[in-house]
Design goal:
Blueprint (H helix, E strand, L loop, with lengths): L19 H13 L17 H111 L2 H10 L6 H107 L10 H30 L1
């Protein structure tokens, strides 16, 4: 019947009755490591006493166990540090994505404003062309009116000499009863001339006003376009900086995930090794496997019990051999 508790401190390369999980793991690590594992000498090749050999093995075991504990502690620290870094990187990535969305909205607004400004400039150009056509039309009318004015003035000057002749003509001509009748006709012509002169002045003033408005509108449109171009360049530079930061953070996140996956693979390999050892011991005793791969504590207890039984049997056989020799 196997013992439930050891009566001696049995040794594979260390003390198995102190900490089962650590000692069994150390045992398998030493078995796989041919460099640091020293096999037991044959009985015909004993070059040192068993006590000295045991002390040497115990010292090596303590050193390796201490190194294992340090590596486990370092691995736990690195795991905690990687988890914290991953959380921090995720937060920074979320903030950068929010900034990216915000800058994208601003760039879209600027683009819409630029398109609206282009449409406004096109409309202003069309208005300018129509105004230029109107100005040309007004200039043609003004030139015609000026020509008419010159001709009319020349005609008046030419016919002023004939004033006396007109009076004589009125007296001799029964059509015009009085000179007032003739002057009334002349006044009507003069009034028409005044109206035409006023119209000409009004058209000149309108032309000057339209020219000034056109120049002001052109300057304002050019200023708006220049300001929008400057804002667009600023947002493009900010977008490039944010994109580079996002790429760097994504690369760091990939490296952190790779380290976590490597640690998980090592843990699974350790569990698989323990399960293989337990299965091998069950086959040796011709019993069925009553544990699963993820039941590490149960596997370790079973292995510890079997190793203790083997060590106890070995000690009993050793004592029997000594008694037999005596």
């Amino acid at each position: 019947m196997p013992r439930t508790e050891p009566i001696h401190q049995l040794d594979a390369i260390g003390c198995l009755d102190k900490n089962t999980i650590k000692s069994v793991g150390e045992y398998f690590a030493s078995k796989l490591n041919n460099k640091n594992f020293r096999k037991l000498p044959d009985e015909y090749e004993i070059d040192q006493s068993p006590d000295v050999f045991y002390l040497k093995c115990a010292r090596e075991h303590n050193l390796l166990l201490q190194e294992q504990m340090e590596r486990i502690a370092e691995s736990k620290k690195l795991e905690i540090l990687n988890v914290n870094r991953e959380i921090e990187l995720c937060k920074q990535q979320i903030k950068l994505r929010e900034k990216f969305v915000e800058y994208s909205k601003i760039l879209k607004e600027v683009k819409d404003k630029g398109e609206a400004a282009k449409v406004t400039i096109a409309n202003e150009i069309n208005d300018l062309e129509s105004a230029s056509a109107k100005v040309k039309f007004c200039k043609l009318h003004m030139d015609a009116l000026k020509m008419f004015k010159t001709q009319f003035q020349k005609t008046v000057n030419d016919y002023e000499v004939y004033d006396d002749f007109m009076n004589d003509f009125i007296k001799s001509n029964p059509v015009y009863e009085t000179p007032d009748h003739f002057i009334a006709g002349m006044d009507a012509l003069l009034m028409a001339y005044v109206e035409m002169n006023d119209m000409n002045n009004g058209l000149e003033e309108k032309f000057i006003m339209m020219k000034n408005e056109l120049m002001q509108t052109t300057r304002e449109a050019a200023s708006r376009v220049l300001r929008m171009k400057n804002e667009l360049e600023l947002f493009q530079r900010a977008y490039i900086v944010v994109r580079n930061e996002v790429q760097e953070l994504e690369e760091k996140l990939k490296r952190s995930k790779h380290v976590v996956m490597q640690k998980d693979l090592e843990n699974r390999m350790m569990e698989q090794g323990l399960y293989n050892l337990g299965e091998m011991l069950c086959k040796r005793r011709n019993i069925s496997v009553e544990f699963r791969k993820n039941e590490v504590d149960k596997i370790c207890k079973f292995i510890k019990t079997e190793v203790e039984v083997l060590r106890g049997t070995y000690n009993i056989i050793k004592h029997l051999e000594k008694d037999y020799k005596k």
